[in-house]
Amino acid sequence: MASTMVAEPIRAEAVLAALGPTAASRFSDLQVVAETGSTNADLLSAPGALSGLTVRVAERQTAGRGRRARSWVSAPGAALAFSVGAHFPGLATSLALLPLAVGVACCTALRRLGAPVTLKWPNDLVHLHGDGTLRKLGGILVELKALGPDQWWAVCGIGINVLPAAYQGLPDAESAQLPVSVAELGLDAPRETLLAELLLELQTVLDAGPDAWPLLVAAGRAFDSLMGQPVRVIEPQHQWSGIAQGWNDDGRLQVRDSQGANHSLVSAEVSVRRQSGVSE
């Protein structure tokens, strides 16, 4: 399977064909490049057309970025690294649920293909391994750029391990994470098929817009890998333990501490680690 996945680069025309004519028409610009620093940085620097969705795919990323400024690199053919850009009007607060909505969309697409993945709040695609650890399949990074008063260019970056780490020939950029790949999860699908399925789900979410995201995020609680689990919360000044209670309608993680007090956590301010396994 490894050889079939890395033998040929991703072809934009094959991805568009897999999407079908109706969905493909929504992607006004879909580009595949051999190498770039970061697909998110590419799209942030050059916002796409007002109509349609813009996609940038890289066979290799040399300066990919994860949450909290962590680096994420990918070797040619061993991962799926891409970003989708869309325009949104309104206040920035109206887009607060976008990262979780994208995560739910990715879980939905991957599960439809047969990959048993869940979502670790706020932005990790993970698999619960037999030894009780969470293995990271991929990550999501959503960034906003203001284009004018109440006009936003939202870039949704997604990186997914397609082949095991040994095939990548690169050190794990986040050594605290135990990785897993779609190949190890038994998903025997070409990267073009994988990308098309993810884009179909992302198109639905992005086209639905902020008004539809609360219901999507609520339904996505079924994918929550932290619900009811002991977690370690790492804040800038201290750490503490509690039990995760799931995310609320605003996308904030609810954690009950050892004293019975409930805390509502914002993703930009904390890291959360599952006590019985590997996370963040």
UniProtKB/TrEMBL annotation:
Reactions listed under catalytic activity: biotin + L-lysyl-[protein] + ATP = N(6)-biotinyl-L-lysyl-[protein] + AMP + diphosphate + H(+)
PROSITE patterns for the chain: BPL_LPL_CATALYTIC
Enzyme class, broadest EC rank: ligase
Cross-referenced Pfam families: BPL_C, BPL_LplA_LipB
UniProt key word Hydrolase: no
Coiled coil: none
UniProt xrefs under InterPro entries: aa-tRNA-synth_II/BPL/LPL, Biotin_CoA_COase_ligase, BPL_C, BPL_LPL_catalytic, Transcriptional_repressor_C
Entry keywords, A to Z: ATP-binding, Biotin, Ligase, Nucleotide-binding
EC number: 6.3.4.15
GO-annotated molecular function: biotin--[biotin carboxyl-carrier protein] ligase activity
NCBIfam families associated with the record: birA_ligase (TIGR00121)
This protein's name: biotin--[biotin carboxyl-carrier protein] ligase
